[in-house]
Specification:
The protein is α+β, with helices and mostly antiparallel strands. The protein has helices at about 15-25, 35-45, 70-75, 85-95, 95-105, 145-155; strands at about 1-5, 10-15, 50-55, 60-65, 110-120, 125-140, 175-180. The protein is elongated and about 80 Å long.
Amino acid sequence: MNLYLRYFDKETLVSNVDEALIFLASIPEIGLNAELEADLRDYAGSDVYYPKRYKVRPRVYFIVIKTEAATMLDFKQKKALRSNPTSERAHRDVITPSMARLSEIHDGWYESSIDFKRVVLVPTTGKHEYRDTHFVVFCKANSGLDCYNRIIDHLQSRVDGRSQFPSAKGKNFKFRYLGRWK
């Protein structure tokens, strides 16, 4: 694991913390001390891969980035980006229980509620405003998502077009499967 350090136009790519400390000691504005040295050693030894910045004075920092790059050219061309294909695939394949429940096919009756922002006319001023509206319905549907789509289609034809509806995946839409229809 190498470390990339930059302070304004001064930059370096080093292979260990001692070389990084030599680089930082060569810049008088940084003021290398025991606390900074210990923190840099902790950062280099940890499993954390996000860039770290250290404050020199108000609005002035130097940065340290962990990298797999062997040379400065590789680092600049981003040839040694750290990627973990198994974790990326696992993250992509993860489906939350609420999302899975939303698309489960169960023909029948659903009790659903949706909270949305409805545009209404205020008679005294003649202007429009948003009002929080709670809408509850029993409907026949094939899934939670089908139920959501039916509710939105119904409401869009009956309220002002500027009304705002929540996502089916959000906390403002709830549904409960009641059973099969006859």
